Amino acid sequence: MMKLDLSKIKFSNNDIRKNIIIPDILTPKLAEFIGTIVGDGHIGFQKTKRGSTNYEIRISGNLKDLEYYSNYVGNLAFELFNIRLKVLEIKYDNSVMLYRNSKAMYYFFSQCLLIPQRKDNIKIPKQILHSPLDIKSSFLRGLADSDFTFTLKHKEGKLYPVVQGASKSKILIDDVSSILKDLKINHCTLFERGYYKKRDKTYERYVIYINGVTNVANWFSKVGFSNTRHTGRYLEFLKNAPGRIRIRDERALTQSCPRPKGNSLS
What we know:
There is one protein chain. The chain starts with a strand and ends in an 11-residue tail after the last helix. The chain folds into two domains: 118 residues, Homing endonucleases (Endonuclease I-creI, Roll), CATH 3.10.28.10; 114 residues, Homing endonucleases (Endonuclease I-creI). The C terminus is likely disordered. The protein is built from ten helices and ten strands. Helix 2 crosses helix 3.
């Protein structure tokens, strides 16, 4: 496993008092958490009126995934960094936020991994790209739980499974495509421009698609999701799949979703 350079990490007195840990080895679990930060995370800092600085770590998602964020992601953060993320339910916005202030974690993500505050040109950290396949697939799992969806479409009278991911950043989608090629998962990438009527706004995004029973089965076998909302829908789909595919893929699905220690989703 890769040893990380932590020479730029700075700890606040509060970090030291709370015994915050910064891991120095890139493990699959750490790679998955990094994927979550690249997808749904925000790192930044704000100057206060008193002249001090708040170093912010935030992870936001849909409120219907409250259990996934509060239990799975929260336990993963505790296992890796010895920190309990606070959970905020924002019902008017139908969202959930995990957040905490930590100078050490801010420096880890911004200086060690070079994750920027803005997502327009975000990319996969080089430490991930230069790692073995288990690290790459774990990173993709964390990113997918944040920025990907699993949907069932109708095609020629049959349900057609699709895994789709999207980002403003072309570099990120190109990096994801590179890892999928390493994992031998067939996919395609597109540029899309559309109109969001609710906000009267035109958007542009880069999209990656994994289409069809065989390719989606390959995705779940090698990467998968940790969010049981996605895995549950896939298992439901498999109930109507041919027996040979169903047996093989249910076994692969179980093996591809390791859990951190602590409470897990049911």
